[in-house]
Amino acid sequence: MVKIVLVLITMFYLSYLYIDLFNHRYFQLSDYIKYICIILCFVLSLLIRNSSFDEHDVKLLQIGLFLTVIADFFLLILNDHYAVGVSIFTVAQVTYSIRYNVKNKRSTIKNYIVIFGTVFLVYAIINRFVKMDLILPISLCYGICLIVNVHKSIVIFKQNLYPKPNGAMIAFGMVLFLLCDMNVALYNIFKYASQTDGIMYRISSVSMWLYYLPSQVLLALSGYEFEKQGGKSCE
Prior knowledge:
Helix content: over 70%
Strand content: under 5%
Number of domains: 1
Number of strands: 0
Structural class: mainly alpha
Distance between the termini: 29 Å
Protein backbone atom coordinates (compact mmCIF):
# COMPACT_ATOMS: atom_id res chain seq x y z
CA MET A 1 0.00 0.00 0.00
CA VAL A 2 2.84 2.40 0.77
CA LYS A 3 4.33 1.80 -2.67
CA ILE A 4 0.94 2.32 -4.33
CA VAL A 5 0.43 5.62 -2.51
CA LEU A 6 3.93 6.77 -3.47
CA VAL A 7 3.24 5.95 -7.13
CA LEU A 8 -0.03 7.91 -6.98
CA ILE A 9 1.70 10.88 -5.37
CA THR A 10 4.42 10.82 -8.05
CA MET A 11 1.83 10.75 -10.84
CA PHE A 12 -0.16 13.59 -9.29
CA TYR A 13 3.04 15.57 -8.67
CA LEU A 14 4.03 15.41 -12.33
CA SER A 15 0.44 16.18 -13.36
CA TYR A 16 0.08 19.40 -11.38
CA LEU A 17 3.57 20.58 -12.36
CA TYR A 18 2.59 20.11 -16.01
CA ILE A 19 -0.63 22.08 -15.47
CA ASP A 20 1.17 24.87 -13.60
CA LEU A 21 3.79 25.16 -16.32
CA PHE A 22 1.79 24.67 -19.50
CA ASN A 23 -1.97 24.69 -18.85
CA HIS A 24 -2.73 27.63 -16.58
CA ARG A 25 -6.45 27.55 -17.39
CA TYR A 26 -6.75 24.36 -15.34
CA PHE A 27 -5.33 25.96 -12.20
CA GLN A 28 -8.34 24.94 -10.11
CA LEU A 29 -7.86 21.30 -11.09
CA SER A 30 -4.20 21.68 -10.15
CA ASP A 31 -5.19 22.90 -6.68
CA TYR A 32 -7.45 19.88 -6.11
CA ILE A 33 -4.69 17.51 -7.24
CA LYS A 34 -2.26 19.20 -4.85
CA TYR A 35 -4.68 18.83 -1.97
CA ILE A 36 -5.22 15.15 -2.73
CA CYS A 37 -1.43 14.74 -2.52
CA ILE A 38 -1.35 16.35 0.92
CA ILE A 39 -4.09 13.99 2.10
CA LEU A 40 -2.10 11.05 0.69
CA CYS A 41 0.96 12.17 2.67
CA PHE A 42 -1.12 11.96 5.83
CA VAL A 43 -2.34 8.53 4.71
CA LEU A 44 1.32 7.48 4.33
CA SER A 45 1.96 8.32 7.99
CA LEU A 46 -1.03 6.15 8.95
CA LEU A 47 0.19 3.24 6.83
CA ILE A 48 3.61 3.19 8.49
CA ARG A 49 2.18 3.32 12.01
CA ASN A 50 2.75 -0.37 12.71
CA SER A 51 6.22 -0.23 11.12
CA SER A 52 7.47 2.90 12.86
CA PHE A 53 10.73 3.01 14.80
CA ASP A 54 9.02 4.84 17.68
CA GLU A 55 5.29 4.87 18.49
CA HIS A 56 5.28 8.26 20.21
CA ASP A 57 7.34 9.84 17.43
CA VAL A 58 4.98 8.67 14.68
CA LYS A 59 1.95 9.97 16.62
CA LEU A 60 3.47 13.46 16.70
CA LEU A 61 4.26 13.13 13.00
CA GLN A 62 0.65 12.17 12.26
CA ILE A 63 -0.66 15.13 14.26
CA GLY A 64 1.60 17.50 12.31
CA LEU A 65 0.50 16.08 8.95
CA PHE A 66 -3.19 16.10 9.94
CA LEU A 67 -2.91 19.77 10.91
CA THR A 68 -1.26 20.37 7.54
CA VAL A 69 -4.28 18.82 5.80
CA ILE A 70 -6.60 21.19 7.67
CA ALA A 71 -4.41 24.24 7.06
CA ASP A 72 -4.15 23.53 3.34
CA PHE A 73 -7.93 23.19 3.14
CA PHE A 74 -8.22 26.85 4.15
CA LEU A 75 -5.29 28.12 2.11
CA LEU A 76 -5.59 25.97 -1.01
CA ILE A 77 -9.19 24.80 -1.39
CA LEU A 78 -11.13 27.63 0.23
CA ASN A 79 -8.41 30.15 -0.70
CA ASP A 80 -9.67 32.21 2.23
CA HIS A 81 -9.31 32.64 5.99
CA TYR A 82 -5.54 32.94 5.62
CA ALA A 83 -5.01 33.86 9.28
CA VAL A 84 -6.73 30.64 10.33
CA GLY A 85 -4.74 28.55 7.85
CA VAL A 86 -1.37 30.00 8.84
CA SER A 87 -2.27 29.66 12.54
CA ILE A 88 -2.94 25.95 12.05
CA PHE A 89 0.34 25.63 10.15
CA THR A 90 2.06 27.28 13.13
CA VAL A 91 0.59 24.69 15.50
CA ALA A 92 1.84 21.99 13.12
CA GLN A 93 5.34 23.45 13.31
CA VAL A 94 5.15 23.54 17.11
CA THR A 95 4.20 19.86 16.99
CA TYR A 96 7.28 19.13 14.87
CA SER A 97 9.42 21.10 17.33
CA ILE A 98 8.19 18.85 20.13
CA ARG A 99 8.84 15.79 17.96
CA TYR A 100 12.43 16.82 17.27
CA ASN A 101 13.22 17.34 20.95
CA VAL A 102 10.61 15.33 22.82
CA LYS A 103 12.64 15.13 26.05
CA ASN A 104 12.34 18.89 26.43
CA LYS A 105 8.76 19.31 25.23
CA ARG A 106 7.73 21.43 28.23
CA SER A 107 10.52 23.93 27.70
CA THR A 108 9.75 23.95 23.96
CA ILE A 109 6.12 24.87 24.65
CA LYS A 110 7.12 27.49 27.23
CA ASN A 111 9.60 29.07 24.82
CA TYR A 112 6.98 29.34 22.10
CA ILE A 113 4.46 30.85 24.52
CA VAL A 114 7.01 33.54 25.38
CA ILE A 115 7.87 34.14 21.70
CA PHE A 116 4.24 34.29 20.56
CA GLY A 117 3.27 36.48 23.50
CA THR A 118 6.09 38.91 22.71
CA VAL A 119 5.21 39.05 19.00
CA PHE A 120 1.53 39.79 19.69
CA LEU A 121 2.34 42.31 22.42
CA VAL A 122 4.51 44.26 19.97
CA TYR A 123 1.77 43.90 17.35
CA ALA A 124 -0.86 45.26 19.76
CA ILE A 125 1.33 48.28 20.58
CA ILE A 126 2.13 49.08 16.94
CA ASN A 127 -1.46 48.47 15.88
CA ARG A 128 -2.62 51.30 18.15
CA PHE A 129 -0.74 53.74 15.93
CA VAL A 130 -0.50 51.98 12.57
CA LYS A 131 -3.19 49.51 11.54
CA MET A 132 -1.70 46.15 10.62
CA ASP A 133 -3.29 43.00 9.28
CA LEU A 134 -3.45 40.15 11.81
CA ILE A 135 -1.80 37.86 9.27
CA LEU A 136 1.52 39.68 9.79
CA PRO A 137 2.23 38.63 13.42
CA ILE A 138 0.81 35.17 12.74
CA SER A 139 3.13 34.76 9.74
CA LEU A 140 6.07 35.98 11.84
CA CYS A 141 5.31 33.34 14.50
CA TYR A 142 5.09 30.70 11.79
CA GLY A 143 8.38 31.82 10.25
CA ILE A 144 10.13 31.63 13.61
CA CYS A 145 8.82 28.10 14.18
CA LEU A 146 9.92 26.99 10.72
CA ILE A 147 13.45 28.36 11.08
CA VAL A 148 13.78 26.76 14.53
CA ASN A 149 12.67 23.43 13.08
CA VAL A 150 15.08 23.63 10.16
CA HIS A 151 17.89 24.18 12.68
CA LYS A 152 16.67 21.30 14.86
CA SER A 153 16.42 18.98 11.86
CA ILE A 154 20.01 19.73 10.83
CA VAL A 155 21.17 19.04 14.41
CA ILE A 156 19.26 15.74 14.32
CA PHE A 157 21.02 14.79 11.10
CA LYS A 158 24.51 15.83 12.20
CA GLN A 159 24.30 14.23 15.66
CA ASN A 160 22.60 11.02 14.48
CA LEU A 161 19.70 11.51 16.88
CA TYR A 162 17.35 9.54 14.64
CA PRO A 163 17.96 6.21 12.94
CA LYS A 164 19.26 6.20 9.37
CA PRO A 165 18.00 7.37 6.93
CA ASN A 166 15.23 9.02 9.01
CA GLY A 167 17.43 11.88 10.24
CA ALA A 168 18.45 12.77 6.69
CA MET A 169 14.82 12.63 5.53
CA ILE A 170 13.77 15.03 8.29
CA ALA A 171 16.61 17.45 7.50
CA PHE A 172 16.00 17.46 3.75
CA GLY A 173 12.25 17.61 4.30
CA MET A 174 12.49 20.69 6.52
CA VAL A 175 14.95 22.44 4.16
CA LEU A 176 12.54 21.83 1.27
CA PHE A 177 9.75 23.14 3.50
CA LEU A 178 11.76 26.32 4.02
CA LEU A 179 12.43 26.68 0.28
CA CYS A 180 8.72 26.30 -0.36
CA ASP A 181 7.79 29.05 2.08
CA MET A 182 10.49 31.36 0.76
CA ASN A 183 8.78 31.07 -2.62
CA VAL A 184 5.37 31.59 -1.01
CA ALA A 185 6.71 34.85 0.44
CA LEU A 186 8.09 35.94 -2.94
CA TYR A 187 4.82 34.99 -4.64
CA ASN A 188 2.79 37.13 -2.24
CA ILE A 189 5.20 40.05 -2.48
CA PHE A 190 4.96 40.10 -6.28
CA LYS A 191 1.20 39.62 -6.10
CA TYR A 192 0.81 42.50 -3.63
CA ALA A 193 2.97 44.70 -5.87
CA SER A 194 0.79 43.75 -8.87
CA GLN A 195 3.80 42.24 -10.64
CA THR A 196 1.95 39.09 -11.67
CA ASP A 197 3.20 39.09 -15.24
CA GLY A 198 6.91 38.89 -14.37
CA ILE A 199 9.19 35.89 -14.60
CA MET A 200 9.93 35.87 -10.86
CA TYR A 201 6.23 35.68 -10.06
CA ARG A 202 5.84 32.69 -12.37
CA ILE A 203 8.94 30.97 -10.97
CA SER A 204 7.81 31.43 -7.36
CA SER A 205 4.26 30.26 -8.14
CA VAL A 206 5.58 26.97 -9.54
CA SER A 207 8.54 26.53 -7.18
CA MET A 208 6.56 26.58 -3.94
CA TRP A 209 4.75 23.34 -4.86
CA LEU A 210 7.84 21.98 -6.56
CA TYR A 211 9.46 21.93 -3.10
CA TYR A 212 6.41 21.51 -0.87
CA LEU A 213 5.14 18.08 -1.84
CA PRO A 214 8.58 16.37 -1.69
CA SER A 215 9.04 17.88 1.77
CA GLN A 216 5.76 16.38 2.95
CA VAL A 217 6.55 12.96 1.48
CA LEU A 218 9.94 12.90 3.21
CA LEU A 219 8.39 13.93 6.52
CA ALA A 220 5.57 11.40 6.14
CA LEU A 221 8.09 8.57 5.67
CA SER A 222 10.52 9.82 8.32
CA GLY A 223 8.83 7.77 11.05
CA TYR A 224 9.28 4.46 9.22
CA GLU A 225 11.71 1.87 10.60
CA PHE A 226 14.07 1.36 7.67
CA GLU A 227 16.73 -0.37 9.78
CA LYS A 228 16.42 -2.48 12.90
CA GLN A 229 19.66 -0.97 14.18
CA GLY A 230 20.30 2.73 13.75
CA GLY A 231 21.20 5.92 15.48
CA LYS A 232 20.08 6.95 18.92
CA SER A 233 16.39 7.54 19.52
CA CYS A 234 15.15 11.11 19.89
CA GLU A 235 13.75 10.07 23.23
